[in-house]
Predict the structure.
Amino acid sequence: MHRRIENSLVVFAFALLICLTACFVSTQSKPTIIIVSPPSGSRFYDGEEIAIQTMSSDLVGVTRVELLVDGTLVRTDPSPVPQGQLSFPLSQTWKATPGTHTIIVQAYNAAGSVSNPAGISVTVLAGGAPTATVPPSVSTLVPPTISASLTVTPTATSSICTDNAVFVADVTVPDGTNWMPGQTFNKIWRVRNTGCPWIAGYQLVFVGGEAMSATTVLPLPNTANGATADLLVPMTAPTVPGAHNGTWRLRNPSGKLFGTIVTVMINVLGQSSSPQTAVPAGPCSGTPIISSFTANPPNMTAGGRTVLTWGPVTNADRVEIDQDIGLVSAPGAITVMPTTSTTYTLTAYCGADSATAQVRVLVPFAILGSSTSANPSDFTGACPKTIIFSALITVNDAGPVTYKWESSDGSHDSSNQSITFGSAGSQIVNTTWTLGTAGRTYADYWIRLHILSPTDVTSNNATFTLRCN
């Protein structure tokens, strides 16, 4: 009898232990949850269905999973088993809207306890979505090892890169290089990537002026942020004498132009009125004699043309003109189109002896071109946002340039400013515009550069669109 009472007490104690253990687990157990995909930092497009795949677990069973976007509950999905299940794979979807968003998931168990949140940050780009990639079926997910101590914390918002590039140098064919009509050459610009990595789909494209190339779209080499790339375009000089130029830009896979403007500016020499051959023979001795060397007109505007004319040259075995004109016959004439004031020298040789004659063609200081770009030109996100505007000014000589900025609504017009050039070439001037109110869209706003002197030139309108969240 005494032994039966002892056995009953043991059974009762064991049952009480089981009950207490179950009660402790049910009140103290805390679910765990992880996000299987997409990874934090992923990019999507406006309107795209984003599938957030999770795996949650709990010792007494997960009953539901909540999905929150930017702190707002967007959906709740219950366990297929009413009392909950130990391991719960789930795929929840959310229709993307432009901007950078924090996505949080959390799981609940049968006792009402909630997991630590798991989170990721995603960026949704404005524009149409590409063909969606079907996410893997939840049935293919391999449940992770359950750990009561597992804690998943939200990932910090990742920084988003912006396409950009800056001009470094003309590797070949500096501005104003002289070429003969139809002469071929390779133009190479060196640029630095100051934005997103350039991968497949990034291109160099012709945008204005004269292409001078049969190819107007070329792929960019793969280039990491901070690295430089040499961009080569095979070109052929036009057959018409004078100044010629072309403008090129970089383009991303979405078709947006970005970054620096690169230009090719050459001068095509005119043909001589007589064959480019040595002076006909006859023995010579001593110093050659040059009868005349003139320019008509001697003063001209940039982009105009003048004719160099020289008379008979005697006691010479060859005659040359500098500025890449080279060997000529005498008498003769040639049409030239200097972009800056230039001194031409005709040299006649007789063996080691020589004689020279010079003529100077005066070209006033002038603007050869101006173009303006906005970076970014299309933005969606938090406002206010600062837009950077860059204007490329190209001149024919050394001198000061006076300019001002003009804006679409007049609110960002500037006072007169100036920049000084030490020689012919190009320089970039910049300005910024910070604007934007949450919930508002600014479409077709622009800034342009208005050059006041030495000549009155207005650049293109650099337009931009700003969508403020």
Q: What stands out?
A: The chain has one helix and 33 strands. The helical segments are 2-28. The radius of gyration is 37 Å.
